Predict the 3D structure of the following.
Amino acid sequence: MGELGQDGSPSQIDSVVTSAVAVASDEEQRVRLGILRTRVALKRLQFAMAARLADSTLARAPVTGSLQHLRSISALYALRGRAEDAAKAMERAADVEATRADASQRTAQGLRREVARLTVFAAVGMRDSIAASVERVEMQMQQWIPPQQQAAWRDAALTQPAALASSSLGRLVEWSPRPAGRYLLALRYDADRGNATGVRARLAALDRARAAYRPSDISLDAVVSEARARLDIGDTTAAVASLDGAIRSLPARLGSLLRDASSAASLVQLMRLRGAVGGPTAARWRAAADTLWSR
């Protein structure tokens, strides 16, 4: 699985990108090209190379820029385990988003920044930072959101970070929105309570709904969450199959790899979980995860 096919496309990409970097007219363009090279290295499963490319790209990356730029450098920071730097980049991305919002949305900008930070810490699995960030989110919410709107706002804003934190920490977080209607949270809820029948029923329904999906169509954070639930009910064979399928699908994920901090962190969480499960390839994936999160 080290290379991508036999048609020479990886080397063609390398050649084109290297030439483009040499003539790039601004630093943000160079960063975009550096991210592309990092994605190609990840697709090739060349993780040490991906780490070096990410580091060299971040070394010259502007700390301000477009929304896409800030999300991309946040992804690179997350890929290297630099959660605080990733969180700062996502805070700045929230600021850029605010310039596109109406006045009522801009009022709660401090709250949106805190949610952005929380999402990064949740994806990386930083328990203490998650707890501190949740406290700040609650404080900001009390300040900016009318009491009658707080429950709805909390459900809408905290669903993604709660799902990411519950996956990375291996249990449903206490500040999670109500699991009903939120399948990853509901799955974690059942798994935490040892409800194997409920977990199997939810996963079977997902499998039916995804009958026409390719492995690369399923987000990596969902793969990790679902595999953890399978492991918790003792279905190791199915968990390994889903993790290995996601790993094999990496060459088809060029567009989604390094989309943002949570996608990058989920990639490493995937490899860490695969390494923890055991088997002939476990050491390989433990080493890959350690290489990327060596900082």
Remarks:
- The mean pLDDT is 89.
- Residues 9-292 form one domain.
- The chain is about 70% helix and 0% strand.
